[in-house]
Task: structure prediction
Amino acid sequence: MLAFLSLDTHRYLIPDNQPVCCTINGVGADGSPSLSLDLGVGPLRLPEHTPRKLQTNPMHVERSASFKDEAEDLEAKLNRMSEENKKLNEMLGSMYADYSTLRSQLFDLMSTSPKEKGLVSPSRKRKSESLETISFDDMTYERTDGISNRVESTSREDPCKRFREDPKPKISKAYVKTDPSDTTLVVKDGYQWRKYGQKVTRDNPSPRAYFRCSFAPSCPVKKKVQRSAEDTSIIVATYEGEHNHVHPSQTELAHGSCHNGSLPCSVSINSSGPTITLDLTQQGLSPGGSASREIESPEFQRLLVEQMASSLTRDPNFTAALATAIFGRILQHPPA
DNA sequence: CGAGTTTGACCTGCGC
DNA sequence: GCGCAGGTCAAACTCG
Result:
């Protein structure tokens, strides 16, 4: 999934005012992403004025001794920082392994949940939709074109009834990971929603909230939001219909939304980690599998990587946390 | 005071 | 036809 991730290089000052370059890479053209932390303390680059020939000059024996001490000192520092670099690499590796494990567990849960587990009473279940599922890092989407399969219709039926049984609007589902302690059923997708109802459903103790798009008065899109019965940290948002107006974020592109408008995604960072919002209700992603094709396309992944990188590097919490971690490791082994 | 939310009542579809 | 459950309405309420 993650083809390539390269975050901007940051510079931090270590206690003796030596700049440390920090670069995080995630590389995985073969589908196996990896992380590395390069503190930029590779081969020692001595200043061009390093007096290599001073030792041959008896006039500078004393000075050369002090330079030698200084070089040894620098070399020792370099070795220490290389060790730190290695340790941080290992830490990142183990963190990424944990993350991968948790993610696969989450997807296992999702793939076996609502339908397969049969938690919904089979005899009472209403006509179900056939949904296409799109996995997308921390979020999973399902989508259907919603074409009605109902067998229609006799000439005796009145026009009102036939009107009601028009093909269903497009339906897509979004699984959003949130803080379980957060009781609000808010899915930030960039649109303006007006809540018009709430109901406790039979198969889920969490209430389901009903929203209508209020950005445009005539917009027919509705949204149902409910916490997952299996994992209350996951909010399931079901979108019905297509917006008949532009995405509100197109008027505020400075908030991390896609710049070209062709891929309706945005990236945000909160306490639970980076969140990627992909709006499948926009017309830019057509039904019938083209959405997943778009996600798989190199262009989409490149834009996604750019979005993630720019969001992370703009986020002061991330840079501060990274700087703190580096400081912490360095201060554990202060320079001699 | 207007916009948004809450919540009980009502409507509708589906299975028996 | 009845009962159940999901979905919607609209009056009351809250908040800025």
About this structure: Chain A is about 30% helix and 25% strand. Residues 37 and 89 of chain A are 6 Å apart (CA to CA).
